Amino acid sequence: MDGLLNFKKMEENTPNNYKYIGYARKSSEDNRDRQVASLDDQVFIIEGVKTRYNLNIIEVLQESKSAHEKGRELFEVMINKLETGEANAILTWHLNRLARNMIDGGKIIDLIDRNKLVEIKTPSRAYHNTPEDKFMLSLEFSISKKDSDDKSIAVTRGLVKKCRGGWRPGMAPQGYLNDKTTESGNRRIWIDPERFEPVKRIFELFQNGTPVNEIHKLAKDEWGFRTRTKKRSGGKPLSISMIYRILTNPFYCGKFEYPLKSDMWYKGEYEAMVSESTFNEIQIKLGRRSQYKLQGHQFAYTGSLVHCASCDSSIVGEEKWQCMCSNCKEKFSITKKNKDKCIHCGTLIHNMANPKMLHYTYYRCGKKKNPQCEEKSVSLIKLEEQIDDFLTDIDISPAFMEWATKQILRENITEKNFREDTIKNIKSTHDNIRIQLDNLLHLKISPMNKNGEMLNDEEYKNKKTKLEIDLKALEKQLVDTDSRMIQANDQTEKAFTFASRAKERFAGDDLKVKRDIFMGLGLHLALHDRKVQFDAPKYLIKIKEMKKIAPIIAKAVEPKKEPENQALLEEKFSSIPFLLRGWELRPTCEIMLYL
Predict the structure, then answer these.
(1) What per-residue confidence (pLDDT) applies to 91?
(2) Distance (Å, rounded) from C-alpha 105 to C-alpha 140?
(3) For 113, what's the count of Cα atoms within 13 Å in the CB-facing half-sphere?
């Protein structure tokens, strides 16, 4: 009986009874012309195959959805039609249009196993319920998945590279424009000359207390602001929700997260519209209306750079935000538990009339080694004032720098003559030891020493070993003589360069530069009673002593105004014994003695 039923089912599934569903799919959900054309091409090919073989196509489905993951709506419609018997065959341009993931591929093969799907036809071949065809289907679906995975990795790598370069992938927000002329992968983001200033004005107005409703009216009615015109959208006024999205988008302060909610942040290379501090202040004013999480501040003087003088724990940095309530005039801290209202009168920050925002940065003991440590915190301003004061003490004038450079050159000439004499003596000693080794060997193998009467094996070994040790020591001394001088010159140059430029460079905003300069002021810096304890290198201590002994060094203005006094200035420097005290045999700059 079962055999008769199977025979009838096979008889029903003859080519004349196949009911095809045409399926065309493009990978992207956007409306770019090349993607739309790919759908048209697939449908054209499907219609050509239908005409050539006189096929019965009940419907052609066109879908704009990636097959890398499951969840295609029209694909599921096709599967349901095959399950219910409305169709029993598929006509498509290529198998990779059907599936690029193993779940959807498994559904198709399962339908073939159950005779729900009797044929998959492409322009090049047909697949039926045979072991060979099902194996080929599995192989094609696996190849499609591998190809899709490889492309995904390549695209992700390219996007990450673009982010590291400071350019966010995707559509630029209002006020900026995407570069469409450069090669893909290297496209940048430019300022929109028509909308940049109006959007920047939105930030300024809100920061100064203008409500969003009024900003909306100004942008719509007075400025005539219209969004960028795209192919199917744009050219409309900003809505209130769009203004809130602008105010909470960190892209405008020069940084972006990609992908969203990944906590991977990058610094943009485009021109920022507002400063990060201004943007953070606006987020606090918005309170719960802002979903943006304030990013952790980068601290220049933390980590192993400086320790607590009391418990030796590392120093940590922390930020504090405070708000001056415009209603009750009281100041309150903004924390994770309370970030949107005054703790005194309950007024929401968003409803305050131009509240004053206060921002502070502190450095304190991390208390990891002693949770009960009582060392107090010091503000960033006070800490940098101490560093600047120390740099002022070692700051040397261009006039002294020029004089010191000349002295180093003079010392190099003296040192060169001494070094050449030293090398000559070392080479002479080296040659003598070589001669002694040769003589020792000749004596050992001499016929007169046949029985070891003049030099036995033990004596030969001991003398040879001693001479070889002396020889290696001399060779090392030859190398060290040159390297010491080169190293001393380099370190002296770095010392003077650091002292002459450190204060100027520290005044900038680069946190890395500030950190590097701070590191140059000691290897074991400590914080005690809100003061930095410097353990500066000896050469910096000597520079401080020089400035105390020779006050004229600090007066860098005088030589600039009167260049003719340069000779007198150099004579003054040279008259100070402290500056030129050195070794008996090799007079050298005092600083070089301590490098």
Answers:
(1) 94
(2) 9
(3) 10
Residues whose CB is less than 8 angstroms from the CB of residue 387 and which lie 6 or more positions away in sequence, other chains included: 506, 517, 518, 521, 532
pLDDT surpasses 80 at 250: yes
Buried-exposed string 55-94: b where 16+ CB fall within 10 A, e elsewhere: bebeebbebbbbbeeeebebbeebbebbeeeebbbbbbbe
CA angle 230, 233, 238 (to 5 degrees): 105
Q: How many CB atoms are located within 10 Å of the residue 252 CB?
A: 26
Percentage of residues in the chain having pLDDT higher than 70? 77
pLDDT of res. 470: 80
Alpha-carbon span 331 to 358, nearest angstrom: 9
* Tens-place pLDDT, residues 306-357: 889 889 888 888 888 788 887 888 888 777 677 778 888 888 777 777 777 7
Contact 225, 195 (CB under 8 A): yes
Residues in the chain: 595
Between 96 and 348, whose confidence is greater?
96
What gap in Å lies between CA 503 and CA 393, rounded to an integer? Answer: 10
pLDDT reported for residue 60: 93
pLDDT bucket at 207, cuts 50 / 70 / 90: confident
Burial of 139-172, coded b for 16+ CB within 10 Å and e otherwise, reads: ebbeebbeebeeeeeeeeeebeebbeebbbbeeb
Question: All domains of the chain, ordered by start, with CATH?
Answer: 2-161 (3.40.50.1390), 176-289 (3.90.1750.20), 303-376 (no CATH), 398-422+474-594 (no CATH)
CA distance 531 to 377: 10
Q: For 280-300, how does the pLDDT look when each residue is reduced to its tens digit (9 = 90+)?
A: 888 877 876 666 666 556 788
Between 543 and 490, name the one with better pLDDT: 543
* Opening angle at CA 562, ends 389 and 540, nearest 5: 30
Strand locations in 465-535, DSSP E?
525-528, 531-533
**DSSP assignments along 239-254, one per residue:** PHHHHHHHHT-GGGGT
- Torsion from C-alpha of 254, 259, 263, 269, nearest 10 degrees: -20
Half-sphere exposure of 582 (CA within 13 A, CB side): 15
